[in-house]
Amino acid sequence: MKFTEEHEWLREEDGEMVVGITTHAAEQLGDVVFVELPDEGTTVSKDDEVVVIESVKAASDILAPVDGEITEVNSALTDNPSMVNDDPQGEAWFFKMKISDASQMDDFMDEAGYQKFIG
Amino acid sequence: MSDLHRTPLYDLHVELGAKVVPFAGYEMPVQYPLGVMKEHQHTRSAAGLFDVSHMGQVILSGESWDHVARSFEALIPQDVLGLEQDRQRYGFFTNETGGIEDDLMFARRGDHLLVVVNAACKEADIARMRAAVEPEIQVTEITDRALIALQGPKAGAVIAGMDARADEMAFMDVADLTLDGIEVWASRSGYTGEDGFEISVLADEAELLARKLLAHEDVKAIGLGARDSLRLEAGLCLYGNDIDADTNPIEGALNWAIQKVRRAGGDRAGGFPGAAAIQAAFAVGIKRKRVGLRPEGRAPMRDGVEIFDAEVGGSRVGVVTSGSFGPTVGGPVAMGYVATDHAATGTSLWGEVRGKRMRLSVANLPFVTANFKR
């Protein structure tokens, strides 16, 4: 699993990247009450706003970590947004993407690096 | 951060693991480890303890109650003179155009008035009161007391367990109580729509009192995050969002808070800032009105969301002034201003969120039935 400075994680699965937010990010957001997911098949560029998360207090965006195509979204989150708090690094993945340029992942952190990053 | 004030309960908040944020010039707990949602639900099902020491507590005193009450009536459109001993009332300072400068609670305690105002407005409020009533009436800011609210269906039993006289208090009664040896000024009121108390206590005894309350199994510390979602579900205004210097009380749907004796035809009609504008709003009506709003989807509509009368095109007919997820309602809830001809309950409108218009309907306030002790 790789981690970004935007507090996302990426996990490779069957040649695609599964993307979610970290436990740390979920704790910071607080109770998630709404998740808006992108359309499957959307082509995105790194740093595009692809997901909207609303907690009780505020709205936040999740950015595309890399260029690519959204191949699948976790529509269970739409009906059950609190999954993001319950299991952020497992069941509550947001989307899967086919990435265009693997070199964009070179700067991402491993688990130890991320733990150090959040201090 | 150095310019921020701390309340007498600051160390306790930190010890309890609160996330502390700047709010109205104070470092205040926005949430505890329990989290906003569970804090909200705990307050609705048991009892929540809130530190509201940032609010201003001010005493107006003079040679007689009559004199104090009449002087205060020059500043607010409420019936002060008619307030009974040991009773509290909601009110607001108005300006010359009939707008609301701040909202407040005032209580008749003996021959004086205790006024509680919002933290962000308290300096201006005190200056306004001094300018209007001194030197005949003394305006004393109380700086040596904290203010704690205990709110929720279990609050009554918790307080009555410490001083049985609390059982005699109905909604908006005030009394001096002794809670486990600590003398307090209590009112049976709050900002959540639940039964509960607001308790003024000497600053150096505040932490001890808070610890005694928190020792009760039904009581948990609750932050400003849940305070906001609780008051929103209860349909209560947040000054600066839902009412401000440009909204008059009629637009703000606060007609009920202006007693008949101060309205046109009443024995003490007018005589407060903006009286002509407010009487005109009563007489000829208003163009916009504060209403409850219920988004139909799951997406919260927060303050600033613009409201339209059609899904495509149409006209802008209003704006959201407070909006969030309502944990007790189980969905998004909001308040805002809409044009009077769109203000009827059930009217279908659209709120524009992130460029998309989503359906919402005008709803009755409060969203959650009030649970006061009558």
Automatic annotation (TrEMBL), chain A:
<dbReference type="GO" id="GO:0005960">
    <property type="term" value="C:glycine cleavage complex"/>
</dbReference>
<dbReference type="InterPro" id="IPR011053">
    <property type="entry name" value="Single_hybrid_motif"/>
</dbReference>
<comment type="function">
    <text>The glycine cleavage system catalyzes the degradation of glycine. The H protein shuttles the methylamine group of glycine from the P protein to the T protein.</text>
</comment>
<dbReference type="InterPro" id="IPR000089">
    <property type="entry name" value="Biotin_lipoyl"/>
</dbReference>
<dbReference type="InterPro" id="IPR003016">
    <property type="entry name" value="2-oxoA_DH_lipoyl-BS"/>
</dbReference>
<feature type="domain" description="Lipoyl-binding">
    <location>
        <begin position="16"/>
        <end position="98"/>
    </location>
</feature>
<keyword id="KW-0450">Lipoyl</keyword>
<dbReference type="GO" id="GO:0009249">
    <property type="term" value="P:protein lipoylation"/>
</dbReference>
<dbReference type="GO" id="GO:0005829">
    <property type="term" value="C:cytosol"/>
</dbReference>
<comment type="similarity">
    <text>Belongs to the GcvH family.</text>
</comment>
<dbReference type="InterPro" id="IPR017453">
    <property type="entry name" value="GCV_H_sub"/>
</dbReference>
<protein>
    <recommendedName>
        <fullName>Glycine cleavage system H protein</fullName>
    </recommendedName>
</protein>
<feature type="modified residue" description="N6-lipoyllysine">
    <location>
        <position position="57"/>
    </location>
</feature>
<dbReference type="GO" id="GO:0019464">
    <property type="term" value="P:glycine decarboxylation via glycine cleavage system"/>
</dbReference>
<dbReference type="InterPro" id="IPR002930">
    <property type="entry name" value="GCV_H"/>
</dbReference>
<dbReference type="Pfam" id="PF01597">
    <property type="entry name" value="GCV_H"/>
</dbReference>
<comment type="subunit">
    <text>The glycine cleavage system is composed of four proteins: P, T, L and H.</text>
</comment>
<dbReference type="InterPro" id="IPR033753">
    <property type="entry name" value="GCV_H/Fam206"/>
</dbReference>
Automatic annotation (TrEMBL), chain B:
<feature type="domain" description="GCVT N-terminal">
    <location>
        <begin position="9"/>
        <end position="260"/>
    </location>
</feature>
<keyword id="KW-0032">Aminotransferase</keyword>
<feature type="binding site">
    <location>
        <position position="198"/>
    </location>
    <ligand>
        <name>substrate</name>
    </ligand>
</feature>
<comment type="similarity">
    <text>Belongs to the GcvT family.</text>
</comment>
<protein>
    <recommendedName>
        <fullName>aminomethyltransferase</fullName>
        <ecNumber>2.1.2.10</ecNumber>
    </recommendedName>
</protein>
<dbReference type="GO" id="GO:0004047">
    <property type="term" value="F:aminomethyltransferase activity"/>
</dbReference>
<dbReference type="InterPro" id="IPR006222">
    <property type="entry name" value="GCVT_N"/>
</dbReference>
<dbReference type="Pfam" id="PF01571">
    <property type="entry name" value="GCV_T"/>
</dbReference>
<dbReference type="Pfam" id="PF08669">
    <property type="entry name" value="GCV_T_C"/>
</dbReference>
<dbReference type="InterPro" id="IPR028896">
    <property type="entry name" value="GcvT/YgfZ/DmdA"/>
</dbReference>
<dbReference type="InterPro" id="IPR027266">
    <property type="entry name" value="TrmE/GcvT-like"/>
</dbReference>
<keyword id="KW-0808">Transferase</keyword>
<feature type="domain" description="Aminomethyltransferase C-terminal">
    <location>
        <begin position="288"/>
        <end position="368"/>
    </location>
</feature>
<dbReference type="InterPro" id="IPR013977">
    <property type="entry name" value="GcvT_C"/>
</dbReference>
<dbReference type="GO" id="GO:0008483">
    <property type="term" value="F:transaminase activity"/>
</dbReference>
<dbReference type="GO" id="GO:0005960">
    <property type="term" value="C:glycine cleavage complex"/>
</dbReference>
<dbReference type="InterPro" id="IPR006223">
    <property type="entry name" value="GcvT"/>
</dbReference>
<dbReference type="GO" id="GO:0006546">
    <property type="term" value="P:glycine catabolic process"/>
</dbReference>
<dbReference type="InterPro" id="IPR029043">
    <property type="entry name" value="GcvT/YgfZ_C"/>
</dbReference>
